[in-house]
Amino acid sequence: MCFHVAPSQLLAQPFEAEPSKQFSSADIEFFEKQIRPILIDRCYECHSGVERAGGLSLESREQIFQGGDSGPALQDDPINDSLLLRAVSYQNADLQMPPSGKLSDSEIDALNLWVSRGAPDPRRPAVVESSSASPKG
Hints:
mainly alpha, 5 helices, 35% helix, globular
C-alpha cells in the first residue's frame, strides 16, 4: 500500500522549535535541507499519516521521541544510541529501515549528525480532526 502526502501538508507545518527545546537557526536549516528530504523521500510512505507501520510516525520531533511498537525511535540519553540510527544502519537483521534498501552513506551520516545535534526539528504533530457526527437518514 502506498501513502502519498500532499506537498501543501508538508509546508503547512510551523517553522519554529518546540517550546521545551530551542535550536539555533543553523540547526533548523540543517534539518530543512538535509533531514526533511530524507524523511519525505525514504520514510514517510510507511511512517506518516493515519497508517503508521509499527505504530511509528516520523512527522514531528515529539512523535519520533514517543516512538512506536518497538519503543522510542530517539531517546535523550544517550541520544546517539537510538533505535532510529541502528535501524537505518542495518545493525540488526530484524530491524532494517527502510526495508526497500539501505540509505546511502551520506544520508546515514546526515542522520547521525542530526541526532548528535539533539535532533533539531521545528515540526509539530499534526492535529487530526475527527468527525463524530454521522449523517442521519
